[in-house]
Amino acid sequence: MAKVARMYYTQGMRQTEICERLNIHQSTVSRVLKRAEKEGIVRITVSLPSGTHTETEEALQAGFGLSEAVVVDCLDDEAQIAHDLGAAAAFYLENTLKPNDVIGISSWSAALLQMVNSLRPSQRFKSNRVVQILGGVGSPNAEVHATQVTRRLADLIGGEATLLPAPGVVGSKNAREVLLKDRFVREALDLFPKITLALVGIGATEPSRGLASSGNIFSPQELKLLSGKGAVGDICLRFFDENGRPVVTELNERVISMELEQLRSVRRIVGVAGGKRKMQAIRGALAGKWINVLITDLATAERLLAGREDEELKMAGRGRAGQRTR
User: Rg of the chain over CA atoms, in angstroms?
Assistant: First the structure.
């Protein structure tokens, strides 16, 4: 065991080379290496580089039922958080994108814009399509942001872009109905059920500067109405409460974007968001299972886990109180 372990781990020999040198079968080499580990002759340690937080990621995955979590070290600055989360999202996308994925991406997210700016060009996925899932028409200056996210992402991966040429928020239900009949708007909407990977920002009820400058926001009175109904955040301007339940108001009838129930049917939904301002929104998105992959900053991850622990302690306390009552 010691000889085989030394040849394999210290001298860097392949198992086939060990077989030839010692005149034994490869299955014997494999079996001996496993035995050497059990006997303590071989001890395997993993030395993680600084800045990686695998334990925190695993705790998020277990605590919130996520398929994956990515936690990033960031300074406590909103612009820096968007930049760093965007870079992490670019790395995630480069390593997990599959051939024939249909990517849905929401506009007006600073982190997703940074993701596109950080992405390395690749022509591996020419069959992929990128679909805008939140209306991107708005202020002429800000509109460049929305179309850039979709078009540039498609260019970088060698795919095709389908824009959603409509505002995210329109003035009335009738205006929305007219726009939904537009051929190019319908072309984007008809692709929503085919999306396999959604990249979304998570918004607080208080709009970000980018969204506010776009004009795709509700008035202060309308935002007050949403808050009064318990809204804590949104994905694609579809609002939900702290438990993740959709907040349904007449304002929904003025939004042109993917609906939450449509989003739920997407196989991979990646939420890219962090910072104190968005804490309640991220927690609500997790509670509603509106995302199954989260890319966030370390401080936000720790707050989410602390809140989860507090909730579990409260539940345990209620359970003990109920037992005493009985």
Answer: 24
pLDDT in tens, 95-129: 999 888 999 999 888 899 999 999 998 877 677 89
Which tokens in the block code for residue 312? 């579990």
> What separation, in Å, do the N-terminal and C-terminal C-alpha atoms of the chain show?
60
The neighbour count for residue 69, using CB atoms within 10 Å, is 23
Would you say 138 and 207 are in contact if contact means Cβ atoms under 8 Å apart?
A: no
User: What residue ranges define each of the domains in the chain, with the CATH number in brackets?
Assistant: 2-38 (no CATH), 54-311 (3.40.50.1360)
Torsion, CA 24, CA 26, CA 27, CA 30, rounded to 10: 110
Measured CA to CA in angstroms, residue 228 lies from 70, 164, 246 at distances of 33, 30, 14
**Is the Cβ–Cβ distance between 32 and 277 less than 8 Å?**
no
pLDDT at residue 316 in the model: 56
Weakly modelled stretches of the chain, pLDDT under 50: none
What does the H/E/C string look like for 118-150?
Answer: HCCCCCCCCCCEEEECECCECCHHHHHHHHHHH
> Which of 263, 268, 211 has the alpha carbon at shortest distance from 235?
263
Q: What is the reported pTM?
A: 0.81
